[in-house]
Amino acid sequence: MADVSRVQSALLGWYAREARDLPWRKTRDPYAILVAEVMLQQTQVDRVIPKYHAWLARFPTLGDLAGASRADAIRAWQGLGYNRRAVRLHEIASQAVAAFGGKLPRSVDGLLRLKGIGRYTAGAVACFAYEQPEPMVDTNVRRVLSRVFGIEPAGVESMAASVIPRADAWAWGQALMDLGAGVCRVSQPLCLICPLLHECGGPRPSGGRRAPAGEFRSSNRYFRGRILDELRGLPTGRHLELDALAERVEGRVDLIHALAAEGLLEIDSNRRVKLPE
User: Fold this and answer.
1) Which of 96, 155, 188, 225 is deepest in the core (most CB within 10 A)?
2) Which of 37, 91, 134, 199 is catalytic?
3) Mind listing the pLDDT tens digit of every residue in the chain (277 residues)?
4) Is 247 a residue of the active site?
5) Which CATH number fits domain 4-19+134-168+176-193: 1.10.10.10, 3.30.450.40, 3.90.70.10, 1.10.1670.10?
6) At the topology level of CATH, where does 213-274 sit?
7) Distances from the Cα of 15 to the Cαs of 165, 168, 239, 252, in angstroms?
């Protein structure tokens, strides 16, 4: 097994030289960091950066977001996909205002009391906002730690906290993410330029197939986005007839009802569809 202190020293030294310049790294505002973490789930950094700035300009605080309508949040999310995340952020803001005076708790346990915040996001907020030595294990971090310490991916959760340098927890978490994103990649990892080359137990590649563009355009995710984009284009409070909306999305009435069940749109008794207010 790799020597923990040498891994820490090498990775932190590399991060000090090679850190990505990302806007959410310039703040310790828990709300701004929460926004970034939710946006970054399943979305590339380059797509997130402009939406992150736009979101915080529109909703600068948890109170501002909680005071807005759900429809406003869904509209502001346009272009990021996985629109349920916008609803989740709105719900978290409402809970934080109601239960915590408009602030996010400092502890992981406190953050987990907010519906919609899971263990990874709670760890990220605790670490990146409050600089606590809390692990946050996403796909990239799991891959890096699995390879470096020569353990199975399933075992990373239970050991991640034990290798955090307590005095440098913030930089450690950011460094793991940068290494996983740019060097310790799923396929064709750049081992020869990796700062942990001499400590690493070796890559453990994982499979996975990227769906062709044509396949994506017939997917549920594609049509869910299409449905919400049709509604986003309407003036506030306006609606579309259910049948008319279905015609625009190749008859996917099932997805319209699924989105309604998730709170992303509303269908009234007259079969009219609109974003929730």
Assistant:
1) 96
2) 37
3) 679 999 999 999 999 999 999 999 999 999 999 999 999 998 999 999 999 999 999 999 999 999 999 999 999 999 998 889 999 999 999 999 999 999 999 999 999 999 999 999 999 999 999 999 999 999 999 999 999 998 898 899 999 999 999 999 999 999 999 999 999 998 888 988 999 988 887 664 444 445 465 666 678 888 888 888 888 878 777 888 888 888 888 888 888 888 888 888 888 888 888 888 7
4) no
5) 1.10.1670.10
6) Arc Repressor Mutant, subunit A (1.10.10)
7) 14, 11, 50, 47
